[in-house]
Amino acid sequence: MKKFALTVTSAMLIAALSGCSQNAPTTETKDKSAMAEKVQQETNPLLAEYSGPYGGVPAFDKMDLSLLVPALEKGMEINLAEVEDIVNNPEPATFENTIVPLEKSGAELGRVFTYWGIWSSNKNSPEFREIQAEMVPKISAFSSKINQNEKLFARVKAVYEGDEFKTLNSEQQRVTWLTYNGFARNGATLEGEAKKRYAEINQEVASLQTKFANNVLADGENYVLYITEEQLSGLPESFVIGAASAAEQRGEEGKYAITNTRSSMDPFLTYSDERELRQKVWETYYSRGNNADEFDNNELIKQILKLRHERVQLLGYDNYSQWRLEDRMAKNPENAMELMQKVWPAAIARVEEEVKDMQAVADAEGADITIEPWDYRYYAEKVRKQKYNLDSDQVKQYLQLDKLREAMFYVAGRLFNFEFTPVEEGKVPVFHPDVKVWEVTDLTTGEHIGLWYLDPFSRKGKRSGAWATTYRSYTTYDGKKTVLSSNNSNFVKGPEGEPTLISWDDAETYFHEFGHALHFLSAKVAYPTSHSGVRDYTEFQSQLLERWLTTDEVINNYLVHYKTGEPIPQELVAKIKKASTFNEGFKTTEYMASAIMDLLYHTTDPAVIDPQKFEKAELTKLGMPEEMVMRHRSTQFGHIFSSEGYASSYYGYMWAEVLTSDAAEAFAEAPGGFYDEELSKKLVKHLFAIRNAMDPAEAYRLFRGRDANVEALMRDRGFPVK
């Protein structure tokens, strides 16, 4: 309930307010009203309780946009009714009569937002965007009604500050604190005009963020470069086949489509010999949201930053970052920036070395150029071949999507005791033919754990990138609920009958997102709020899982040539491992530039910020290399401007990477290596199963016996350790 669209808490009883009026209704009137409401819920599949096998599954086969608005409106009505039931309880506030009903509330609305998430991320359309624009302010207003409900907050506060709190178990105490803190940090303590203005700002920000995201999506869809056979020089066969297929899908048979997505842009810039085309693709991709047209995001950034700043000032904070980081591992922006500053000098120093190597190759070839941003990937690949005799396209021949999925299942079996079994097609509804489903069970007992949905391929209407989510989380407080987890990617689909081949970076991302799914599937917590994430910690588990891609068991058994079926040669494996820190300057710098800019945007007076000037000026101060740009330039930085999930928290990937590097060293030192049985048990128990039912820093100490240190990260990246 408290988190509505982000993580709506699950299942609750319906409190019918439909009969309330000045005059008490008759029993007959109440019965008719209740029956009408029941009929409406049953006939709208977006509201209905999940049915079917595996404890119930979403009715993805019954999704119809015409149902969305009435479902949202009814879901919010039901949720507000539940809140009224809680606040009107005449008994003194307790955990059982206040916190538990809050945990149960919002089930109908939560189910609606499951479908909303599919339409938003996997099946976006102009029709949905119209609904989104209409409903987002209403959803924000609904959320404010709950967050600013004084009687509700008073009851939560009474539980948090009461004598009963000391008698609760550790998870119940943390859930109570998280609930109290969520209200206190979101306007519950405000009064009068300040409270009203806070709610108004929430609605305005929500609308602007939605528009920002849709503008980036529009630029991603509107800009497609079609090239001809004469312009394919340097491009590997697998990419050419995918580009031809993408063009054919868009009605341009005989041409080759370079879409405005990272999965298309990145390999094109790596392999294409056509420098002018590389520049065009680079400029198009990095100009998203910055084309001085109807989809331009510069003004939206200014408005979002000003409103966020005004809102936190109402709560007494100096800037947005202070408010955002208060309950994160970093605690404040100074600590987050301190970590960035420890790593930044080594990163840009490495970039300087990389550029020198690339310029030397260009000069030796007589290219008569100075390395520009659209040259970086292309010449880095040439350096890779020269330094390590390693050809990325050669490696790609051994990276089949299906085989990598089998490898992930193998790792899940060894570490988590999970078994993945394909669900028969048609048994579980899906929202697109590309989506496949697996049942997850305990290898030893056969106990059903949950389902895993996979939507792997890029298509029109699907947002870029890769992500994981849940359609239902594990809880036990109101009867055991099993997990419905999901992974989503944007790989370029191989032609009919051919395997989909991906790059090494994409393979790491595949494992990364699967790490999130394993985090969902391994949960052993009682309450929905225990699933609320600490942003600079939740990336740790998924980043750590990337390390199993390079274990011998995975390499020797699952990396096989897509044509011959032969295992990847050991000499090629040796080259991959030797080159593991190659181009680390580029990867670290492009990420950190975005993370630092995020912190700067949210610690600077927004009145003086003009996004393009600010981005350029601050990166110049940092000594940003001219040969590259931020991974996410300001006008397309959806992590921080299309929602507040990562706002002032993009640094969290690096914070989590410190934990990752430190934990990876623990496995490297263990007797059984990365498959050490005892350490794996500790990993699952303390770092995966616990979710947010315990302070993350305490959980990590239980696993490692101490705090993590940054030196492990520096060693991992091949940077000098002082």
From TrEMBL:
UniProt keyword Hydrolase, yes or no: yes
One function term, GO molecular function aspect: metalloendopeptidase activity
Ranges of residues in domain Peptidase M3A/M3B catalytic: 268-717
Cofactor binding note from Swiss-Prot or TrEMBL: Binds 1 zinc ion.
Designated name of the protein: oligopeptidase A
Encoding gene per record: dcp
Limits of the Oligopeptidase A N-terminal domain: 74-195
EC numbers, comma separated: 3.4.24.70
Assigned keywords, A-Z: Carboxypeptidase, Hydrolase, Metal-binding, Metalloprotease, Protease, Signal, Zinc
Signal sequence residues: 1-23
Upper lineage: Bacteria, Pseudomonadati, Pseudomonadota, Gammaproteobacteria, Alteromonadales
Any Gene Ontology biological process: proteolysis
Catalysed reactions, as listed in the record: Hydrolysis of oligopeptides, with broad specificity. Gly or Ala commonly occur as P1 or P1' residues, but more distant residues are also important, as is shown by the fact that Z-Gly-Pro-Gly-|-Gly-Pro-Ala is cleaved, but not Z-(Gly)(5)
Family: Belongs to the peptidase M3 family.
Listed cofactors: Zn(2+)
A single Gene Ontology CC term: cytosol
